[in-house]
Amino acid sequence: MEKSISLVDALTGVDFVFEHLDGQQIRVKNKLGQVIKPDSLMTLEGKGLPFHKRSYEFGNLYIKFTVNFPEKLTKAQMTPLNGALGKEEDDEEMDGE
Asked: How many domains, in total, are found in the chain?
């Protein structure tokens, strides 16, 4: 399965529900503080398709995450990000301001 998420979700956590092929609702939530990197995989053990001739056993479901980065940020958006991520402010003017 592929899932596209925002940069905010990648940094602060995902929490979503999807409908499995069998109609079951499955909740996906990552561990607190875990950062999801672009193209990373999450494994949901036993939530995949059933094995051939062993329909009572299920494989794993893998979720590949695509992170959508913003095209640009304003200085107002960058200031709290810099503080939260430990980067010192840059006094240079940004393009378009």
From this structure: 1
Q: What is the pLDDT along the chain (97 residues), one digit of tens a residue?
A: 999 999 999 999 999 999 998 899 999 999 999 999 999 999 999 999 889 888 888 999 999 999 999 999 898 988 888 888 888 766 665 555 5
28: domain CATH number is: 2.60.260.20
In this structure, what token pair is assigned to residue 26?
Answer: 């499955």
Judging by beta carbons within 10 Å of its beta carbon (0-12, 13-18, 19+), is residue 65 exposed, middle or buried?
buried
Q: Provide φ and ψ at 86, rounded to 5°.
A: 80, 25
H helices present in the chain, as ranges: 7-12, 75-85
- For the question of whether the overall pTM of this predicted structure is more than 0.85, the answer is no
